[in-house]
Amino acid sequence: MIATILAPTAGTAAVAGHDVRTEPESVRASIGFLTGDTGLYDRMTARETLRYFGELYGMDDDAIGRRIDQLSGQFGMADFADRRVGTMSTGMKQKVSLARTVLHDPPVLILDEPTTGLDIVTTRTIVRFIRQCRDQGKCILFSTHIMHEAETLCDRLAFMVRGRITENGTVAEIKGRHGGGDLEEIFVGLMGGDHDDR
Amino acid sequence: MMTAKTIVVFRKELRDAFRDRSTIFSVLVLPLVVYPAMFIGMGLLIGQQRQDEERRTVRVAVSGPRDQGLLDLLRNDPKIAIVEPAEPRRLLESGEIHAALEFQPVRADKRLALSLLYDQANRSSVVAKERVAKLIDARRHRLVAERVMAKGLDTLMLAPLTAEYKNVASARKMGGFVMGMILPYMIVLLICVGAVHTAIDITAGEKERRTIETLLVSDISRKEIVVGKLLATVTIGMITAAMGLVSLGLTAVSGISILSARQSAPISLSFSPGAMAFSYLTLIPTAILLSSAMLLIGSFARSVREGNAYASYFMMAIIMLAMVSITPMEPSPGLFLVPVLNTALCQKELLMGIVNWGHIGPAVLTTGLLAALAFVFAVAFFQREEVLFRS
């Protein structure tokens, strides 16, 4: 809904000052959106993919070229930039996807489990990049099951249990409220216990 | 409606499609290789069969008090072998002989009576019957002439009327006629075959491969996406049609395919580039209609499999409609309001050099209106999340 793929049944939200109901185009232009459902075209190379989305974001040729070179260096994509996506490993694809997400340098990023299923090296590259984006002052909505990532990356955390936010605050605030300890333990406690049968 | 982003989508879809081997097959291999080969193969087969028939010697049994004159004629035909078996009827049924000629005793009025037995269900027997019938006719004429001469009259009195039948259709018109029999149907079919794979692949295929969300979160409107995809589909359908026009046109003039096997009159295909281009342009509304309809089907379907299943039902209906154009008929004005069929009928006329605006106008108009409607539905479908995210 925030990415304007779905229309809200009631209420609204504002992204970078743009209303998702009345200005969906401006909202989409301000967001970089990455989930497990944002796949890439198998028959296109990484460079063609990025160029395609760059053109859709209205970037000019030179800007796209510069940005591709920059991201390709940052993510170590130079080796496979001209390979078709269909022949890439999961890690390579995820790097291309992330490059696609941040190509137009949006102020807001929505990243849904960007490191799931990736090898350690790729995970580190991605986590490092997300930290950079945070330090640049981008607003990042980051969802994960990996508490370690949440703890090291996020300024503010929200725990979501069965579709509802049950806890919300900085790491220190949350730990303070629950008598310190491990975030994972706090989360499991909020869920109502450590049983698998739900 | 046509924005820079539409063109971006159009270019990408086209490039993507041509990297797909099945697109290459339906756009190039099918019209340039498979269909011509099929038509030529069928033509050669039929030609071969006809030659075999002409060369074949048929066995004809003779019985009863024979007429020497007719018997001589039969004997002099090198492709007729006369046999005199005991049970001609049984042999005829088993196919060992091809016809049985039974002479009856000459009647008191001096009339010669005979019966020819043959098997209508057996091709060789039919050939035997035709050959013997010709000789019987020759014998009849001979007998008449003899009797007329015996009375001292001129045989010229036996021919009080002569008639000639002349085909005034020019070789060019005959060319158009020959092509017009099946070509319009083939072209409509080719637009479908070319467009269907791409249409389903860039709608249901995007859902299946989970690339649709990536596209939808980009800075482009749903309408721009649909227009871009439609343009790509129409282009591929029209390229397929162009390939078909050229290759099947050449196949028809080659004279060895089934497309022209039955024509005895000379045929030629000498289209001016202008006429060719015009006839090609009149296909565009139909290409838009078929493409929009298939995009609609593809956006509705959950998977490529489902999309292809729906599309095949749709194509069956289209093929039935287009097939009506193969029947030789003088089309009533109402038929030019029937989508797809009207295009095939107009193509038929245009191939023969007939430009009838009373036909082309309604055809283009109704097809155009329906195409616009299908397009509006396709865009509306693309706005609906329950349709886009059904998988």
What would CATH call the class of the largest domain in chain A?
A: Alpha Beta
What is the percentage of strand-forming residues of chain B?
A: 5-15%
Number of domains of chain A: 2
Overall 3D form of chain A: globular
- Total DSSP helices of chain B: 15
Encode the helix/strand succession of chain B as letters.
Answer: HHEHEHEEHHHHHHHHHHH
Provide the structure class of chain B.
mainly alpha
> What oligomeric state is this?
heterodimer
Widest β-sheet, arrangement of strands of chain A: 3-4-5
Average residue-wise pLDDT of chain A: 90
Q: Given the helix and strand composition of chain A, which structural class is it?
A: alpha/beta
User: What's the total number of strands of chain A?
Assistant: 7
Average of per-residue pLDDT values of chain B:
88
Task: State the domain count of chain B.
Answer: 2
Could you give a quick summary of the protein structure above?
The complex is a heterodimer of chains A (198) and B (391). Chain A has 198 residues and is an alpha/beta fold.
